[in-house]
Amino acid sequence: MKKTLRENGLGLFFGLIFLLALLGQALTGHALYNEEQLIAGFPTVSLGQYVTSSSFGVDVAENWQSEYLQFLLYIVATIWLVQKGSPESKELDKTGPETDKDQLTGDYATSRSPAWAKLSGWRHQIYANSLVLVMGSIFFLSWFAQSVAGVSAYNEKQVQDLQDTLTWGQYVLSPEFWNRTLQNWQSEFLAVGSMVVLSIYLRQRGSPESKPVGAAHEDTAATG
């Protein structure tokens, strides 16, 4: 058990704090929602009703889609783009998908390589791009979920205010949808860009996201 916990500590840690944060969001969101309901003269809802509501769903989905978009773009961009001095970048002369030898595929696969890495054809292509395919799928699904939950939450408020409702198509073209979307995107892009640039000059001893403390600023793709 101790070995399992140690070898999977990073995933377990982030899984745990994700669940705690989601629980905290549910509890505080429920309290805020009921407070707003009372102010508006509408009935309150139970926690179970709130976490299955469009109001909670749109808040969760809009954050998920922006996070997965961030990583999707970063994975794809770092295939072709480099940043001198950053540990977040590949070496400056290794842009592109690299050779089979570099990637340990086909004839260069080892006995420990995944089975589909040793193959050619469509199975190899799927596995060679599986990270982008899965991250992209999660992004688009969560973005779609945001739009569905978002139009429901928006129309619920419109009905309460005796205003006209929108169809799904109208909603995804509306300022409401794009304001919710872009306010998340810009923060994710800033965070990733800051990590790429700041890691050129700043260090964190012992972290693989940082260069060794004594590494030169211009060293690229080095990790500590």
Q: Secondary-structure map with pairings?
A:
Layout: H1 2-7, H2 9-40, H3 47-51, H4 54-80, H5 100-103, H6 122-128, H7 130-160, H8 168-172, H9 175-201
Helix pairs in contact: 4-7, 4-9
Classify the secondary structure makeup into a structural class: mainly alpha
Shape: elongated
Average pLDDT, to the nearest integer? 92
Query: How much helix is in the residues?
Result: 55-70%
**Through-space gap between termini:** 28 Å
Q: How many domains make up the 3D coordinates?
A: 2
Q: What's the gyration radius in Å?
A: 23 Å
> How many strand units?
0
- Main sheet properties: none
Strand content: under 5%
Instruction: Give the uncertain stretches in residue-range form.
Output: none
Q: What is the number of helical segments per DSSP (H or I, 4+ residues)?
A: 9
| Series of secondary-structure elements, N-terminal to C-terminal | HHHHHHHHH
Salient structural properties:
2 domains, 64% helix, 9 helices, mainly alpha, elongated, 224 residues
Structural overview:
The structure is a single chain. The chain is mainly α and 224 residues long. The chain folds into two domains: 1-52; 54-224, no CATH class. The protein is 64% helix and 0% strand. The protein is built from nine helices and no strands. Helix 4 packs antiparallel against helix 7 (130-160) and helix 4 (54-80) packs across helix 9. The radius of gyration is 23 Å and the shape is elongated. The relative contact order is 0.12. The model has no long low-confidence stretch (mean pLDDT 92).
